[in-house]
């Protein structure tokens, strides 16, 4: 597909979708679903860019092997679950760092739930990209 309108729209929509996925990811460590929904939004941005310019147009090196992205995500999610086991002897216990104040963002809370959500985010992103690449008839 060689559409100037799609390529132009993608140039503006891609950073907006990636930014939205990161906002949803950060929001999710206090509320359920942030990593999963954020990963789906990021995957839709990647697929939109691949639709507009092909897989070569999105930086093939980043998504050459989505299975590696899934592995890193699963390891991170599992590691965040075991942190509480080693510190408080409770599996999947949420541990929080002191609240920081960042001038642009305001109060920022970091802890093991955000690590879990990042792991889910990477796993969902890798799986969606793997599925999309497997459906592409031009992709080897």
Automatic annotation (TrEMBL):
Na+/H+ antiporter MnhB subunit-related protein domain mapped to chain residues: 5-129
Domain of life: Bacteria
Keyword annotations: Cell membrane, Membrane, Transmembrane, Transmembrane helix
Pfam families reported in the protein's UniProt record: MnhB
Keyword match Transmembrane: yes
Bilayer topology term: Multi-pass membrane protein
PANTHER family per UniProt: NA(+)/H(+) ANTIPORTER SUBUNIT B (PTHR33932), NA(+)_H(+) ANTIPORTER SUBUNIT B (PTHR33932:SF4)
Family recorded in the similarity comment: Belongs to the CPA3 antiporters (TC 2.A.63) subunit B family.
Record-given protein name: MnhB domain-containing protein
Classification lineage: Bacteria, Pseudomonadati, Verrucomicrobiota, Verrucomicrobiia, Verrucomicrobiales
């Amino acid at each position: 597909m060689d559409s100037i309108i799609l390529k132009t729209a993608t140039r503006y929509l891609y950073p907006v979708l990636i930014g939205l996925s990161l906002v949803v990811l950060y929001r999710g460590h206090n509320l359920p679903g942030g990593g999963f929904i954020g990963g789906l939004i990021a995957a839709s941005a990647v697929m939109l860019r691949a639709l507009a310019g092909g897989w070569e147009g999105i930086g093939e090196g980043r998504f050459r092997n989505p299975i590696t992205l899934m592995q890193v995500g699963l390891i991170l999610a599992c590691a965040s679950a075991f942190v509480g086991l080693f510190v408080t002897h409770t599996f999947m216990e949420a541990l929080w760092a002191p609240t920081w104040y960042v001038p642009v963002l305001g109060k920022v809370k970091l802890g093991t739930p955000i690590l879990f959500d990042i792991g889910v985010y990477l796993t969902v992103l890798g799986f969606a990209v793997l599925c999309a690449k497997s459906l592409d008839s031009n992709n080897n």
